[in-house]
Amino acid sequence: MTKKRVMFVVCAALLLAACNKDEVENGVPASAEPEEVEEVEVEELRYTMPFTGEKVAEESFLRPILATINNHPDARPQSGIAYADVVYEMLAEGDVTRLLALYQSQIPTTIGPIRSARSYFIDMAKGLDAFYIAHGYSPEAKAMLTSGVVDNVNGMAYDGTLFQRSNERKAPHNSYMPGENVTAAAEKVGASLLYQKKVSYSFYEEQDSVKIGKNANEVKMNYNNNGSFNSVYTYDVDKQTYTRTAANTVTVDHLTGESVELSNVLFFEMAHRVIDSEGRRDIDITSGGRAYVAQQGMLREVNWENRDGLLVAVEQDGSEVQLVAGQTWVHFVPTSPGLTSSVTYSE
């Protein structure tokens, strides 16, 4: 670890310049010699976390952990979502959304409730080279997981061991992965937690301006008419972050009771299609399309692309949109009705 040694020196002669050269107040003799005080070591933050842009002293080699998080109202508040670098929200069956929480900066003490896999969840994990955590699967997802598309652990095989049930809630809203079990789970299935792909987002430097677009201190995402899975993002000027509400309730982390605070909210328009009688979907996460970016109380339209597995917002000139350091929430928005109808804002 590289450290900068910082010496704080107090020069007594300068402090006493306005006083008598021979003595100071209360008769204490003046000194022309500088007085040295305690030496303080300050760590140099040389590295940038790939998914949050936060500066750290030591480089992280932890492979991303991607977990399917239950977003049913009976599963709220969830545990560990405030610790995720990125949260992706998308439709599963019907009007119900699920979350994919990406952990790389830190792993919380508890993650969940964990829910079942879908094919496009696995595609996301593959693109990120993430270790994927789920409990259950659709028929398509089961085939992908069985064939080894991604390194994964599933609660169907480890219910009650690596995955723990909470007595506070009823199934299927009560399956959790203790953070300390993540490493054990990877070892159990023979997966490495060493990050080798090394994809990352692009971030603003502190001095750069991000006041681009239209004033939008409140941004609403509407997935359906009943409101259970609709959300509102409100910008806090003092904190320079967004708070989130879902179904008119502030989104908090069950572990801390504190609200989730976001630096970026992204909306990616994607083609959705229903593939079976249960209402399961397939979502096109590869073709790119229209996108909105909400940052520091501003909203603007850009595009999105899948670049080597990482879904990124891009400018009109093709350069990657820079994010504000901190946590990011990404919505997958169906092309029908589309961004214009699904995402609204007010100053």
Q: How many individual β-strands?
A: 26
What percentage of the residues does DSSP assign to strands (E)? 35-45%
Q: Which structural category fits the helices and strands?
A: mainly beta
Shape: globular
Q: How is the biggest beta sheet arranged?
A: 11 strands, mixed
Mean pLDDT: 89
The termini sit apart by: 45 Å
Task: Describe the overall structure.
By secondary structure, the chain is mainly beta. Helices cover 11% and strands 35% of the residues. The strands form 6 sheets. Strands 5, 6, 7, 9, 10, 13, 19, 22, 23, 24 and 25 form an 11-stranded mixed beta sheet that branches. Strands 14, 15, 16, 17, 18 and 26 form a 6-stranded antiparallel beta sheet that branches. Strands 8-12-11 form a 3-stranded antiparallel beta sheet, with no helix packed on it. Strand 20 and strand 21 form a beta hairpin. Helix 2 packs parallel to helix 3. The protein is globular.
Record keyword descriptors for this entry.
eleven-stranded mixed sheet, disordered N terminus, mainly beta, 347 residues, six-stranded antiparallel sheet, 6 helices, 35% strand
